[in-house]
Design brief:
Blueprint (H helix, E strand, L loop, with lengths): L3 E4 L5 H12 L3 E6 L3 H11 L2 E4 L5 H14 L3 E6 L14 H29 L2 E6 L2 H5 L5 H21 L4 E8 L5 H4 L3 H9 L9 H11 L11 E4 L7
Parallel strand pairs: 1-2, 1-4, 2-3, 4-5, 5-6, 6-7
Helix pairs in contact: 1-9, 3-4, 4-6
Bound molecules: acetoacetyl-coenzyme A (CAA).
The site of acetoacetyl-coenzyme A (CAA) has 19 residues, from helix 5 and helix 7.
Organism: Tsuneonella dongtanensis
Enzyme class: oxidoreductase
Keywords: Oxidoreductase
Length: about 240
């Protein structure tokens, strides 16, 4: 029986690359999404990956969505908490909603998915959770107090939950991507992005499949001794 993996935000950007890589690795992949039904349907048909819609920031919806996956697909062994949004702006311009939405989805989503899936992993004695953090959670970033706080929170969440899973065969790790060539990064104003790229030692943006390869490794049987760690995949932009 193949292991079941859920990738949140798994139909676009880094999440899409992770879904595809896990499928190629032989996992039974479920891609969660929250937004565009037509795009998700097209993704499901093109990739042969089941899609399920719920808002990871909604606690009850998340529990119900994961329960449905377990009934229809099987027990969830691998969770990749990838879903995330940005609401960039300097503190002066940032609204409470900008703050709250980012905390609720980016950080709250990790809690909600863990509440739904971690107990089953512990009961079965095997599990893998990979949380997608960010270079901006490690180093901070101008105009991102909300996003940097949520991503930094993800790194703390990872280290704490890793301690709870360690003796039970469940590893919990984070990947901290740098700037990757996705729609999210393309939304950064061009002059700002040019300055950021100039500071990346390898001299380019990363590719989504370079993050996905980190996920396939951390979720493999070979990675059983790695837990509570952060894999920084950022082209040398922040060596942490
Ligand atoms: N450090 C110090 N000062 C800075 C700065 C920086 N990094 N960036 C901008 N400033 C200064 C500018 O020089 C400018 O100063 P003056 O007014 O004295 O000229 C002032 O701040 C205003 O700058 P902007 O014109 O950029 O301000 P804005 O209000 O138009 O935009 C912003 C603010 C939306 C935050 C914009 O700067 C921005 O988008 N920055 C990029 C944020 C970013 O990197 N987001 C990453 C998104 S992708 C992602 O998050 C994925 C991931 O995990 C990596």
């Amino acid at each position: 029986m193949t292991r079941v993996a859920i990738v949140t935000g798994g139909t676009r950007g880094i999440g899409e690359a992770i879904s595809l890589a896990l499928k190629e690795q032989g996992r039974t992949v479920v891609a969660n999404y929250a937004g565009n039904d037509a795009k998700a349907k097209a993704f499901a048909e093109a990739r042969g990956i089941r899609v399920y819609k719920w808002d990871v920031g909604d606690h009850e919806a998340c529990l119900a969505g994961c329960r449905q996956v377990e009934e229809e697909v099987g027990p969830v062994d691998i969770v990749v908490n990838n879903a995330g949004i940005t609401r960039d702006g300097t503190l002066a311009r940032m609204t409470y909603d900008d703050w709250h939405d980012v905390m609720r989805i980016n950080l709250g989503g990790c809690f909600n998915m863990a509440k739904a899936c971690f107990p089953g992993m512990v009961a079965r004695g095997w599990g893998r959770i990979v949380n997608i953090g960010s270079i901006n959670g490690q180093a901070g970033q101008y105009g991102q107090v909300n996003y940097a706080a949520a991503k930094s929170g993800i790194h703390g969440f990872t280290k704490a939950l890793a301690q709870e899973g360690a003796k039970k065969g469940v590893t919990v790790n984070a990947i901290a991507p740098g700037y990757i060539d996705t729609d999210m990064v393309a939304a950064v104003p061009a002059p700002v992005l040019e300055k950021i790229i100039a500071k990346i030692p390898v001299g380019r943006l990363g590719h989504a499949d370079e993050i996905a390869r980190g996920v396939t490794f951390l979720t493999s049987d070979d990675a059983g001794f790695i837990t509570g760690s952060t894999m920084s995949l950022n082209g040398g932009q922040h060596m942490y």
